[in-house]
Specification:
alpha/beta, 5 helices
Length: 192
């Protein structure tokens, strides 16, 4: 029901770019390999899709959702800056709560932008249906921000990388029946 095109990325690299594209080990910055291979990963997310990506890579990781308050001021930020700032806030919260952790914290944030407005996860089934109607038959942008923060064993210094990727998505025209059936699956309730 949609077509996808990666448009651009901002930051130092391009890995976990969106829920529709696969993260590969080659996409993780080479300097992060020391952290991943030696110590492990904390995934600061409840997203089943992000968990699935890391599982497909064969990485051992711990899921520890961040309690970062995702209410940053949207009007004062571009969508790129918003997802990077939110992703960074999530990672810093988890990293700061684990001063002895030696490895990396991986966090991400994704939003949809339609007509210049940042849209996040729907808050109800009615909200999800309204969002799908708004996106039906039209193009929109998906922005994903990713942060990696790492610390090596016995080392006080940390590694930090934060970047974003913009993906253009075009939905086919969705009938009311398709929208209602999709909303009833619960799928749109946990993702932007």
């Amino acid at each position: 029901i949609w077509s996808i095109k990666e448009v651009n990325s901002v930051g130092l690299g391009s890995c976990l770019v969106s829920d529709w594209q696969m993260l590969t080990l080659e996409a993780v910055p080479k300097t992060m390999g020391v952290y991943v291979n030696a110590r492990g990963v904390i995934l600061a997310s409840q997203s089943p899709r992000r968990r699935e990506i890391l599982e497909k890579l064969g990485l051992q990781f711990k899921v520890q959702p961040s309690s970062f308050d995702e209410t940053l001021d949207k009007p004062s930020r571009s969508a790129e800056q918003y997802v990077m700032d939110t992703s960074l806030g999530k990672a810093l919260q988890i990293f700061g709560d684990a001063p002895e952790f030696e490895g990396i914290v991986l966090s991400a944030d994704t939003v949809i932008v339609r007509d210049g407005e940042i849209l996040e996860k729907p808050s109800s089934e009615g909200h999800a249906a309204a969002m799908l109607r708004r996106l039906s038959g039209r193009a929109h942008e998906v922005y994903s921000g990713v942060t990696l923060i790492g610390r090596k064993s016995g080392c006080a210094s940390t590694y930090q990388d934060c970047f974003s990727v913009k993906t253009e998505v075009t939905f086919a025209e969705l009938s009311e029946d398709v929208i209602n059936a999709y909303v009833k699956t619960g799928e749109p309730m946990d993702k932007a």
